[in-house]
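Our collaborator T.R. sent over the components below with a one-line note: 'Predict the complex.' Nothing else. No constraints on interfaces, no templates requested, no preferences about which chain binds where. So this is a plain run: every listed entity goes in together, and whatever single assembly comes back becomes the starting point for the next discussion.
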Amino acid sequence: MASILKVSNLSKTYQSAGRSLTVLDDINFDIEEGSTAAIVGPSGSGKTTLLGLCAGLDRASAGEVALNSIVLNTLSEDQRATVRNRYVGFIFQNFQLLPTLTALENVMVPLELHGEKNVKQRSLELLDKVGLADRGHHYPTQLSGGEQQRISLARAFSNSPRILFADEPTGNLDAETGAKVEKLLFELNRDAGTTLVLVTHDLELAAKTQRVIRLKGGKIISDEAASKSIHTQL
Ligand SMILES: Nc1ncnc2c1ncn2[C@@H]1O[C@H](COP(=O)(O)OP(=O)(O)OP(=O)(O)O)[C@@H](O)[C@H]1O
Ligand SMILES: [Mg+2]
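Returned assembly:
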């Protein structure tokens, strides 16, 4: 199987108050197209930073990210945005819905950028899929956390991404809503062959992916197949 994501010798250092802080240190891994993987690790270990670099939202200090064989490092901001819109879905830890747009309009944005036809119809179908067909006219502040999470999921699906990055996709949800979101994530992986890379503190969720990459202090401390016995229960 070809790799959809290849991370080589990746490092990220932030400069603040005249000091440098290395948040990711020489990270290496490949993700196979169509597979599922979880990134786990303590708070502050660099998970969100790593996901952002893999998705081309941010630029590395050293090393390389290749997404679908496109090396992101050398691309301009605009070129990275084009690659993201074409290949990537992203679910943010804090949703990041656009506050001035309704739920429906938030879902429509990636499709419009893509120049798709029937944008409204497709977006309404996606809202239906996440169980929020009747909330399309609501603004993000008029939605609960779990509803915002599901809108952000619908938005991430809308451009039919090849790879979906999800940062704590169930972190803010109650057990029942979390289970629904989880089901949707794995359904998309199975039905559309979308590669799924998720960050989670929930080890049960991590064990449902094929592979668990563990970060600590900005380094990978283990990278192994998730427990088979749990995985086959899916
Ligand atoms: N813009 C920034 N400038 C300086 N330091 C930063 C910046 N962004 C993140 N950091 C630091 O990088 C480290 C890793 O942050 P990151 O958000 O990747 O952690 P995380 O593993 O996702 O944690 P959590 O589980 O709490 O979400 C943290 O110590 C954080 O303070
Ligand atoms: Mg984080």
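Summary for T.R.: DSSP finds eight helices and ten strands in the chain.
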